[in-house]
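FORM 7B: Structural annotation worksheet

SECTION A. Query
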Amino acid sequence: MRTGKHRRPLLRSAAAVLALITAAGAGLLAGPAPARAADTVRGLQWYLDTLRIPEAHKLTKGKGVTVAVVDGGVYAAHPDLLGQVLPGTSFSKDVPADGRSDPDRENGHGTKMAGIIAGRGGGSMHQLGIAPEAKILPVALGPTRDWDLASGIRWAADHGADVINLSVGYTGSDPQVTEAVRYALGKGAVLVAAAGNRRVDRAVPLPGNIPGVLAVGATGKTGSLWSGSVTGPEVGLAAPGVRIIGPVPPPVSPNGYGVTDGTSDATAVVSGIAALVRSRYPDLDAADVVNRLIRTARDQGARGRDPEYGFGSVDVLAALTRSVPKVDANPLLTGASPTPPAASDGGGEDGDDRPAISVGLADNAPIQLGLCLLAVLLVGAVVVVLIVVNRRAARRRVPQAPVGGPPPPPGLAPPGHGPWPGQQHPQQPRPLGQPTAPHPYGQQGPHPYGPAGRPGPQPGGGQTGAPPAGPQPR
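SECTION B. Predicted structure
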């Protein structure tokens, strides 16, 4: 005789199908699972894989491009920067005349920015820069108390800087810095500056708020805007800026590396990408380089340009391969709000036959979400129908005891009722309920590559507390 027990395998199968489809749908929408705790410099450079830098390096590594790092100074003797740092200049008595030293004993800010841009790599224990074949031109301003930002920008523009990295900023306006920015733009340089950190800034600081400068906000590992990133209408792009590792001088960390959060790091990332674009398209002027970066960005936040992501998150491969019309002027000066080009991801500006770059997962997320929801609804409907049909069939099959007669055979209690007289419920196993062991990667102590002697990250390499006077690292 058939009983209601036969419906359990069927329901279990349906539930299993539902679980499989749901899991598959989640796999389409979610990013890759977190890797195990990294213990190498390269392992901590999560942003290289997020930005698909290894693929970009098959196209260019930044050869022939000079990136000026206008900062406190650059420690050129770091193993990851040997041969990468050109003789520069110093506007401070604390730094040698060629700028190839870093007096910042707290953060090594300028050295870290240089490493993010052009670290030469060389194995898992060395920093690989965004543009490892580009050269760094150090413009050392020394300690923040005597920074002359305007003179630093002008010097960089006069000495062949193709890109000027400005991971610095201060509140307010300065006519001399504004004029220096205009001068550098006129000399054909791409200026990339920090959008600012909330612990110091309430609005996008100088020089990021000057028209023509590409101000960069910071995103985290999920691609969402970092909570410490300043927002405002001047923001042009967003790039990874959370838990970024970089080389620092020995006084900062005995192992030679520090990990920080901040729009400074995101700025250095974009400066490296600008160097890749300038290397791949050496005939493009600065206005077209900026236009290419913002027109190929992945739109995030509100549609079009918004105060959080600007034109969107930087897309390295798109900036290196898409066909982008040329412009007559820097779009950040004209106030234009360009829309993404209709051209496919593949094919360069000259219409060559390079293979197309596959569309990113985020571009298809709405379609995938709809398909996943449809699949879940369909399977859910099947499960409900099976439950109803099997319950009705079970009621028809289970014999009912006549009034005053003997009970039905054991194990056939009427649906919705307790055991017949003289019967006992079958013994049910108790749930284990034992506590789950701690996750192996939860609640870890300070990372071995974190700044020595200080708990937690030091966002942007600056100091906490009230906003200091004058320019500060971001």
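SECTION C. Observations
Residues 41-365+451-473 form a domain with the Rossmann fold fold (CATH 3.40.50.200). The longest strand covers residues 66-71.

SECTION D. Sign-off
Analyst initials: ____
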